[in-house]
């Protein structure tokens, strides 16, 4: 029986151990998609407690606690920090086979040097130890990033954001870089409440009046220039439900103007007609905006991320109580290969498809995306179209292995841009270690079985590239 999470955790063969300990382990971290707060990084805060650091905003843990029968008061409610931590500590041992079990104990090992698996019986001791450490100067947010060898962070930011804290960090912090990502989610939200107010805000910050669809695109391009100057090299779009339907600029303009004239006070409540717009009109508008902006990204040699397949806010009751991003989202199961192909082809027709990372939330789509990559590779750079790392509900050992196996099956695995956290927690960077161990073990198994020769020089460089260099080169940083 192996010791729990020892130095060879998840490394089941000698090749895997060599690749991890000699090559992967030492590489800096490029986390090119997360939801960390640049304000908290700039202010270099100390967390008040491990509860604040672990459970504040972490809907992964919230879902698990609800599944374990924990009342909402001890998850997002007014219970004390200790009561919430104790509830989580009692939940962790029940998570047999869940990645949260590994992540939690790996974070305790790497950040707090605690080797004992957490449970209700040792919760108070762990709580006090972590809280004492979190008060120290070496446990501020920035020091936590440095301790985990983080070199590049790409946060997720709205085009109307001032990027105040990114710009301050760019001047003051030299040990790592915090880069904004351009995510025009609200500009795409044509059937969401407050859209007209958002467009007005975007017009103000861009200094460009927005009276038409073309005005909207121009304002977004102005903000894209601003983001680029602030260090942004990657963009992000969440595609849910319909992906793409052919739409002319004239039709997009008509849809935009119809929405801007709609009443915010008395929207239509039927799902097929919101603010006077049909679901089909929404899909057309969003697809047109993505393809138009894709051409702008290509011009700047920026990366476009497409996160596909979230079904959000399933519980109306809990959405009304807690709002979005509270742990009530899930995988959708719609089919979108034809629409995605048409979306990518629309920009590719004129040679203006940017470097693109495709993520699926439903693992049934992994192989489809794996085969989609080859349709739009054009030799302009290695791995121009990427199969994104296992994301959200796929972000576990099985999901990572499936994603990497699909990339091996359909693409050029050595060009893979590697892992990211997609996290709101500053204690999440040990997930890169989790991924790297799984990566090295998969490669090691193929060498040990005779499927690939033991060429340490090539394989060691490939591991370093996947862990670090490929993402740096792909982003142009």
Given helix and strand content, the structural type is alpha/beta
- State the helicity in percent bands: 40-55%
Secondary structure tally, helices = 20
* CATH fold-level assignment of one domain: uronate isomerase, domain 2, chain A
Shape: globular
Rg of Cα set = 23 Å
Could you give the count of β-strands?
10
Average pLDDT confidence is 96
Report the span from N to C terminus: 44 Å
Order of helices and strands: HEHHHHHHHEHEEHHHEHHEEHEHEHEHHH
Major sheet summary line: 5 strands, parallel
- Kindly estimate the percentage of residues that lie in beta strands according to DSSP: 5-15%
CATH class bucket of one domain? Mainly Alpha
> Which second-level CATH architecture of one domain applies?
Orthogonal Bundle
Q: Please name the fourth-level CATH homologous superfamily of one domain.
A: uronate isomerase, domain 2, chain A
Strand order of the largest sheet: 4-5-6-9-10
Spans of at least 5 consecutive residues with low confidence: none
